[in-house]
Amino acid sequence: MPVLVASDLDRTLIYSAAALALTMPDARAPRLLCVEVHESRPLSYLTETAAQLLTDLGDAAVFVPTTTRTRKQYQRINLPGPAPAYAICANGGHLLVDGVTDPDWHAGVLARLADECAPLAEVRAHLEATADPLWVRKHRVAEDLFAYLVVERELLPEEWVKELGAWAENRGWTVSLQGRKVYAVPKPLTKSAAVREVARRTGAELTLGAGDSLLDADLLLAVDRGWRPGHGELAETEWTAPGVTALPERGVAAGERILREFLRSVRGGPSA
């Protein structure tokens, strides 16, 4: 039976220049491979070693990129290795099959959102009314499914984030702070539901996963074995669960370590 590997991308497998966390002397820094260009500028990287590990993983397992990115944002990433047959975008709102949205899956997601949580328009209006232009750079809506703000992190009041979380909780939404972005996402919109669907379709009996943010917690709870890096929301809150390994590595080194753990598990070796 195939092994399914569902992994978050940003700050889990791929990293912006600001998130690389290269703490070693320059002469000992790893060689990097750029895997994303945006507006003619390099944006995301992994180590060359990680690139080879990801290629090997794609040959040995069903690798499923699992991201909160929109489809457009995901499709500008050029990962090494075989093209994934499945990918999960918009936090589970879109299931891509050979790069194309599965319309039945998306329709089912929309139906769940309509039944179980407040509408997106209400959340957008609340963000517009309460977020201070002093520290908000952009208001964004992703795939007509959820909203996020791009903020000046050093000016963002922690109390505002907590108040937003409490307000959203009562309306069936959740809030996540990731770098310079504050996400408001409907609770039924989950990576785990889409991963379970891919596992059903592929017949996978073993599922592996990795992620760094609170939006990845449901994914890590859904898989048989999971890993989180030493940075991100999950590390900051010391979140863990049975079957989830908290790794000490931070930055791009964590991405390399996660891929090593994936491959070791796929091949049946002992895991850290």
Automatic annotation (TrEMBL):
Q: Which controlled-vocabulary keywords does the entry list? A: Hydrolase
Annotated GO molecular function terms are: hydrolase activity
Please name the InterPro entries in this protein's record. Answer: HAD-like_sf, HAD_sf, TPP-like
UniProt key word Oxidoreductase: no
The keyword Heme is assigned to this record: no
Q: What is this protein called?
A: HAD family hydrolase
